[in-house]
Amino acid sequence: MTSITKKFLIAMGWRCLRTFCQGALAYIGTSAMLLSDVDWLGVLSAGCFAAIISALMSCATGLPEVGSDDCEGE
Asked: Which residues pair with 72 in a beta bridge?
């Protein structure tokens, strides 16, 4: 059984934020030539979807930057 610690949640939050930004930038880079051509709802959607997947993967597989001692229950 695993327990989620504050350290794990902070690391997962930062990972989700970085993944959100990467997904949003990828969508902007592939969808528009000018800033006025950007579909901002699509950018938000792509970023959120990437962040959700990142959070689920972090919960399923753990985070390498958080030691196994921080995720094991007593």
From this structure: 2
DSSP category for residue 72: B
What are the tokens at 35?
A: 């800033």
Question: SS3 helix, strand, coil % of the chain, rounded to 5?
Answer: 75, 5, 25
- Summarize pLDDT for 1-46 with one digit per residue, the tens: 356 688 888 999 999 999 999 999 999 988 778 878 889 999 999 9
Task: Determine the pLDDT at residue 3.
Answer: 61
- Using alpha carbons, select from 59, 67, 58, 25 the residue that is nearest to residue 42: 25
**Predicted pLDDT at 45:** 96
Q: Which residue has the tokens 């699509």?
A: 42
Sign of dihedral through CA atoms 66, 72, 73, 74? negative
